[in-house]
Write a structure and sequence with these properties.
Layout: E1 2-7, E2 10-11, E3 18-26, E4 31-39, E5 46-51, E6 58-60, E7 68-73, E8 78-83, E9 92-100, E10 106-109, E11 113-116
Parallel strand pairs: 2-11
Antiparallel strand pairs: 1-3, 3-8, 4-5, 4-9, 5-6, 7-8, 9-10, 9-11
Length: 119
């Protein structure tokens, strides 16, 4: 099993920054791609960003491109999401997720961390 624990969420004013962290434990060698998703109140969960196991490949939702940066430190089994120029529409619970090696579907999920950007 793989456990994912997010941290770093909070309340920040529009235009500010936050860095989210996701620490993985357990059978981390069985994980591959990692991603961040978010779910705002009354909305469906949406993709934010993802990174390959090596860190050499990343992709982002258009809504965060140029403002958010995903990275990972495999020695620490941790993935990060640096969020800059935050907007009220970024308010959501942010979830970390991981795929199994060779998989496409995100099999492992964290509990989420709240990010609030007041309007």
């Amino acid at each position: 099993q793989v456990q994912l624990v997010e941290s770093g969420g909070g309340l920040v004013q529009a235009g500010g920054s936050l860095r989210l962290s996701c620490a993985a434990s357990g059978r981390t060698f069985s994980t591959d791609r990692m991603g961040w998703f978010r779910q705002a109140p009354g909305k469906e969960r949406e993709f934010v960003a993802a990174i390959s196991r090596s860190g050499g490949s990343t992709n982002y939702a258009n809504s965060v491109k140029g403002r958010f940066t995903i990275s990972r430190d495999n020695a620490k089994n941790t993935v990060y999401l640096q969020m800059n120029s935050l907007k009220p529409e970024d308010t959501a619970v942010y979830y970390c997720a991981a795929t199994a090696v060779g998989g496409i579907k995100y099999d492992y999920w964290g509990q989420g961390t709240q990010v609030t950007v007041p309007s």
